[in-house]
Amino acid sequence: MRKVVLAAILAVSIIGLFSLFNAPFSEQLNAQELRCYCCIKGEVVPMTPALCKEKGGMCFKTKEEAMKRCQQPQPQCWCCIKGEVVQTTPAACKEKGGMCFRTKDEAYKNCQKCWCCVKGEVSESTVIECKQKGGVCFKTKEEAMKRCPPPPCWCCIKGELVQLRPAVCNEKGGRCFKTKDEALKNCQKQ
């Protein structure tokens, strides 16, 4: 008698479980059939191995193991970090100061090293970092130095301030200053 009551309680519990998951009555199971915790699209659901396989899930013996291993895969991108291309998550890429790309080829193209000219200054950089700074990339340092014009300076010529390239300022007998404030302090009429 006691075994019959326990079996009835167990059967009612299992039917209740499946009603939670909106399973049709035909899919409701008895205690012997319930053998795995199925991972389907990041969710853990108790069911038979056959039904789990049919629904495209993965079976685990314990709920704990299923919960641990049943996680949605993180989206991946090709990340350019300081001239190196690695596959990682967008969050990890951003955290390390990198930039994500959809394809490996796109990442390599933008992650190549170059000599970057920004406002007359030449420095080693990646193509993407150079573009972000508003610079122009060159393959060699020599080419960058030759083709990267220095920024204009504040030129003091006979007490008058004008913005000129340093070479032009020197040709006209003027004196260059990097900032307007510095030029105003030091530029006196002669």
Give the topology.
Elements: H1 2-20, E1 36-40, E2 43-47, H2 49-54, E3 58-60, H3 63-69, E4 77-81, E5 84-88, H4 90-95, E6 99-101, H5 104-111, E7 113-118, E8 121-126, H6 127-132, E9 136-138, H7 141-147, E10 153-157, E11 160-164, H8 166-171, E12 175-177, H9 180-186
Antiparallel strand pairs: 1-2, 1-3, 4-5, 4-6, 7-8, 7-9, 10-11, 10-12
Notable features of this structure?
three-stranded antiparallel sheet; 3 domains; 190 residues; 28% strand; 12 strands; 9 helices; 38% helix; alpha+beta
Short description:
By secondary structure, the chain is an alpha+beta fold. Helices cover 38% and strands 28% of the residues. β1 and β2 form a beta hairpin.
Characterize the structure shown.
By secondary structure, the protein is an alpha+beta fold. It folds into three domains: 2-69, no CATH class; 77-147, no CATH class; 153-186, no CATH class. Helices cover 38% and strands 28% of the residues. It contains nine helices and twelve strands. The protein has helices spanning 2-20, 49-54, 63-69, 90-95, 104-111, 127-132, 141-147, 166-171, 180-186; strands at residues 36-40, 43-47, 58-60, 77-81, 84-88, 99-101, 113-118, 121-126, 136-138, 153-157, 160-164, 175-177. Strands 2-1-3 form a three-stranded antiparallel β-sheet. Strands 5-4-6 form a three-stranded antiparallel β-sheet. The longest helix has 19 residues, at 2-20. The chain is rod-shaped.
